[in-house]
Structure prediction request, 181 residues.
Amino acid sequence: MTNLIHHFAVPTRDSVSSANQSIFDQFHSGIGFVPNLYATFAYSETALGDYLKLQGRKSSLSLKEKEVINLVVSQVNECRYCLAAHTLLAQKAGFSEKQTIEIRRGEFPSDTKLDALTKFVRSVAENRGRVSEEERASIFDAGYTQGNVVDMVIMIGDKIITNYLHNVTDVPVDFPEAPSL
Prediction:
């Protein structure tokens, strides 16, 4: 029987490939640390760089719209790490703590367009993309385009990747804990 490792420690700079070390250095220069979940991608030779390319792609969605998606999907997937990180990032994007909680609950009554986005994304995430014709109509009625919907699906997929990675690895959360619902 082989000795299997059943947990994931957060990789350090010295334990990752030279390509990932370079990315770690960029994080240190940019934000002063490597978030644990990003470091976890570095178990793979290419996953961290690949994920950062996906995350850095151009999008038709605003920063606030992206954070709505991040919060909704992370709530659906019950990812403590991403809820913590994106509660902080959503607040930096201009949402109040109360608003981040509303979004996580699947509603945003103070803005009809963001409320439609919140509800649509929740349905997409919960139903694995199988939305009703009424839900499709509601997102278009709110002013979103077909291109926006494609970008929403890409963002949902992006967040599912990190949600699942954290839920599998359970690396320590290095952001302030998100408030309970």
Summary: The mean pLDDT is 96. Residues 13-55 form one domain.
